[in-house]
Amino acid sequence: METASPAPRRSGPSGLALLLPFFIFFVLFWLIPLLGSLKMSVYADTLVSAPEFVGLAHYRQILNDPRFGKAFFNTARYTVAILLIILPLALVLAQAVRMSHRRFRPALTFALLLPGLAPPAVLALLFLLVFHGEQGLLNQLLIMPFGGEPINWLKDPHYILPALVLQAVWRWTGFITFFFLAGMENIPRSLYEAAHLETNHRWQVWRTITVPHLRPVLVFAAVYLMVDAFAQFSGAYVLLGGSGGTGDAGLLLISYGYQNAFTYGKFGTAAAMSALIAPWLMGIFWLCMMRTRRATA
Amino acid sequence: MHARLPKKTARYRPPSDRTSPGMTIFLSLLCLIFAYPFAWMLVSAFKTNSEIFHPLKFWPASLNATGFKMLFSEQWFPFTRVFFNSIFIAAAQAVGAVGLSLLAGYVFARHQGRRVRIFFVLALSVIVMPPPTFAVPLFSWLHQLHLLDRSAGVILPGLVSGLGVLYFTQVFRQVPDELIDSARMEGASEFQVVRLLFPLLSSAVISFGVIHFVLAWHQHLIPLLVLNSRDQQTLPVALAALYGSSLRFPYAVLMAGSVMSILPVALFFGLAYRRFKSALADVLV
Known about the structure:
Chain A has helices spanning 13-17, 20-41, 57-63, 66-98, 105-117, 120-130, 137-143, 157-185, 189-198, 202-213, 215-231, 234-240, 253-263, 267-296, and one strand at residues 9-10. Chain A is an all-alpha fold. By secondary structure, chain B is an all-alpha fold.
């Protein structure tokens, strides 16, 4: 038995054994299907048995497919919009919650969190009714009374992507606010006291203490939102019924993948699409992780 | 949580004590906007179709609970069974994912070496490639394993949580070294050390359990593909199918079903709220 040392222990057989349960499932239910996806991507699309090996044909085809380009572009815009709206908004809201009367805080937080707790399918259903062309709540309550033309959110190609973005904002803002709140409460009071000795300016204190301390949370939130933007299926699915909406305005990468796989039966193509997207996600993820490491080291 | 400063030095009031009524009102309005559709949804469970499509009328003509009655009468889909499926599948995933991630997180936090780091990177890769991104090969693989149309087909893939590994690695990093070292000195195996530490981690375990429960509750693509029989489905899938089913069905049923789909998670979340907040704070910062 080693003598006690403050440093973490070198891995021995007992330690690695604890990794076994996780990695058994990892291999069985993640690695194997993932490799299966790669394999599928280099075989033909036929549903009949014994598909032929086609090499990189699917990949070439995808890169020349204008709809794929549209889906990629839509997803990129969608992701950026979500990040740019939710992160600052949640930061502001977290601060607002901290500045609200204590007794109201649980109720306010709950109201903000509610959209995040509802299944996205239900949110989308609500959305369908709220954002309905003429009889929808939004049009009836906020637009028509002011003399505006009712916006056909789900059919007008200009408004489909904004509708998807709004849906995501509605869903996640509360959650991210909650993360920021939790992070803010962990900032030691002594730091604020020290800052108070130098300046009375709230804004400066905010800028030099609160925000830097929230960096790990910010990075975590950004990664979380990005992964959700790429992989979230049911929002767009329920809203647009598995299609991309008018003129593919709402076509996201995951919807296009689903279409290829299940509407057109082109499994190889769908698999190739996943393989194309994965490196980007991984790259962004590791970039964020590296930056957090350096910042907190 | 923090002790109040004695009055004579308390010229300084920390940010969270400087409450402002203006902020409270502003926030309340915003929260009203966020939550209003849900209030409307709840009330709409009591309405007729024409009332639902005239959303300016908030209250129904009569508080006849037809929406809920029709839902529980199961004429549209086997509600009780479906509801139970969702609960069982989400709970099983929560418990299992916590267990697997807990053990893995301990190793990653408390062991060094290149091999450990490689495994850590592998585990985290799961975050960026969640199951919906390889749904088709997963489907055919589950088919080969005879797991289609069974709850296990959704539960087992859902036990692999990269987020969980990340979470528990952070949690174990914050456990004081002395506790672990003294346990190891007394000859405890690594597994026994984890068992020893478990009571300390109750908040973290509950918090991640709730997070994973909610994420599992929300799953759509995998249950949609894997669970085909009507009595194997999960609630969100069944509700979405209901919407597309026929032209003249009472939307009140959909509203009632949606209320029921939020109730359990809201309940769990509400019960675990305080623990959740403190555990999250410890892990994230």
